[in-house]
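S.,

Sequence below, as promised.
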Amino acid sequence: MGIGKIIFCGNDERYLDKKYTRFSDESNGGAAFRMPSLIKAGNSLIAVSVKQTCGEGWGFLELAIRRSEDGGDTWSDVKAIATPPARETYKNADSYASAFFIDPCLAFAPNGDVILIADFYPECKGLHNRKLLDKKKPPYSMYDKKMRPALYDRHGKFYVVREDGVVLNSRQKETLYKVTDWKGSLYKDDEYVGNIFLNGKTGSNNDSVTFGAPLKAPKRNYIYMLRSSDEGKTWSDPVDITSDFLIVEDGTFLGVSPGNSITTQDGRVLMPLYVDKKESVSVYSIDNGDTWHRMTKQPYNCNVDEWQAVQAPDGTVLALGRAKSFGKTPLSLSYSKGKRWAKVKPTGLLAPKCQKSVINVGNYVFCSHPSERTRENGVISVGRFRRSNGRTIGIDWYSDTIINEGFFAYSCMTQIDEDHIGVLYEAQPSSLICFKKFKIADLIEV
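The prediction came back faster than expected:
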């Protein structure tokens, strides 16, 4: 089958074969792209990807979107909605002199807002070089009954950033420093002295390239949230929400499971996270994303790695994880709308170690994933919720529909209208993200 409609297309032949780079233009192009996220909001489809300057999971990585108001037939030009601070923006995998965003996940809140969360790293290589992460520096400190960001100087002395940006020393006394924006711009009185998320002094102070500050945020993963109240046309500045749910046991990585999330029948926005120990984490908001919560009595939700969730008509939430190798997909259940979880036997869905997407339409469940032992041959598996003793206990899978043949990796699905679902997927490594629309009636036919 064909690769589908190209939504994000790389233009650098180091990361994508030239038979595809010729399709890259101003509407869809950049050096490289990964991590698709897709959601329906009002009358609009919103597609999000990580726009890269190289084909790796570090360096100058932005969050980029395209929108469709006609069900995926036509799309707006690609636009960056979150750009990290950087010392360098070279198109070179050897360069990582930049903070970066990665792993976007979309949600549709009860008030109509679109919520986007993503991982944010200060200048480093993230999980690709754990030695660079600051394991012994707490990222937050309690001040005025709230957790506030922590900073450190080159001697390891500790500071805390007050809500108005003023930096306090370890005795909670005001210093001459102030953080003035979400990007981490640091001033000493009226003098700009660098960026708290960057390292050594390189470059100059302009819109895209700057230099490191004398006080720095710990190098680790943070989770930032953006919000749109107009179906993705405009977006708020990113906001750090990590301290709402981070615990010491998470270590230096509590990250986002890319794809999309669910909003439960009672209006609870449920976001999928996971930690470096390969355990998964469920956090939720009951106020449209203003605040986030995590069950302290059960901080992990009995699943592994990147996961996605669906809610059955009876209210049961089912989480599908990512197996360590080709095999049956890990499954956990919640009968409390994502607050408490129980581990159950893996579902019969066979897939390699790769993120997958899952949605449901009534009693039918749809899951997009590679179907081979490696990331090849994408399919939509179709199943029905299985019930016993009056409640949902799993999923019975009964058919597969081919999305594309050949390479297939991360994907994300959403329901477009009562008759169609759409899938956004990686059709080539690190640079080609495509879209296809499927009729629900065709998928569910046995």
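The chain is about 0% helix and 45% strand.

Coffee later?
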